[in-house]
Amino acid sequence: MSYPAPAPSRIDLSQIGEPVYRGSVQHLYAVPDHPAYVVFETTPAGSVFDVGSIFTIEGNDLNRAIFRHAMYTRLTETDTWQRVHAALLSTSSLNPTWRDQLMDGPLQSMLEGGARTHHVGMLDGQTGEVVTTGMPTTPSCFNVVRRFPVMKPPQRNVMGNFVFDYAQFHQSDTYVVPLEYIVRFGVTSGSSILRKYEALSDKERRAFEQELGLTGPMKAWQMLDRPIYDLTSKYEPEDRAVSKQEALLMSGLSAQHFTDTIKMALLGAWAVKDLLDEIGLQLWDLKWEFAVDRESLLFVDTIDADSFRATSTVQVDGRELIIHYNKQAMRDYYRIVCADWYAGINAAKAEAQKLGTPFKQILKEGQAAGIYPATPEVDATFLELQARKTALIKEHVLGISDAEKVRAGLIETGLAEAEFYRSRGHLEELLKLNAL
Length: 436
Description:
Blueprint: E1 21-22, E2 26-30, E3 37-42, E4 45-47, E5 53-56, H1 60-75, H2 78-90, H3 96-103, H4 106-113, E6 119-123, E7 130-131, E8 142-146, E9 155-158, E10 161-164, E11 174-176, E12 179-187, H5 192-198, H6 202-212, E13 222-233, E14 241-242, H7 244-251, H8 255-277, E15 282-293, E16 296-300, E17 308-316, E18 319-324, H9 328-337, H10 339-355, H11 359-368, H12 380-398, H13 403-423, H14 427-434
Helix pairs in contact: 1-12, 2-4, 2-8, 9-10, 10-11, 12-13
């Protein structure tokens, strides 16, 4: 096992200079005199459909940073895993054999010493102190993490077909695993797994149901007896679903380490579920990423409302309407309110796949030529509702408001969102998409 140099205890933000990486929703900075660490700065920008930052939610930068710090801190605490262990034992729908397999391995070490993560702490916005336990007196948008090599697979032309070369991952022992692990407690109306299921033949559907442990046909807004997982590429121009066999080969991991990352993703999902349950939010799915450091596996990257899907239900016109308290609300907005633009996005992705050209390049050139609609502005009222949601979750994480007050505020905001769609003449479309 290798260890990095000691982490910084204080960072002067005026000295860190320009970002070494500008992402669509966050920036990364090098830490002077501490090359083994980086500073993550969350921004209020938002991104959907792999387009890049196309909207801004006020306050979302601080809200997301606080959630990350709180959740990563929880992952390192043994109490978290004791609650997860108890939840596994008390969930009667779990197949005993499957449960025993999940509880064997990483959970045992996390019960004893917590999970390993790349997270170091949050910078105090006034003093620059790196606070590793609890919240800073002045929370900021800056979290400090351990730095891991990020390797992007080069694209190769194989007899006219384009493939990605993952050989370098088999030659390294410390890196970010080039996969996203999606854990699903249930199936939502916009879930890719539901679209996949609906495209299968009857025979293929039965086999898929058996693989997932379903006792009947898959349907939208269905909670599963046990969570399932699927895997996508991380460092290709677009996220791509991959089989377990391909994922293992892409990862560069041994079969045992690959299995451990899957178990960690499932167990980590239960840890997030525990936090959201307190304020009445139902977790449907989330994604994790991992790094390997020789024989050690670590939770890395982000965990906030951009990376999980949580909901509650409200009564609208005598129907149960699902309200999203995460980025899915923005996806639905674009699908419903900006349908022409959304259709253009899908057309550009199909063209990019056919040509082997980056999607964003195809989209930008197509928009300039008038082939695809320009990116629309989001209604300010809708953005204010999304800001209110994340602010309430922040209040819960910080302990500013008790869980019942936060729960009531989230429901009130959900009702206001339904009225927004009604006032714009789109309520029926929203109900069609998200009503039970």
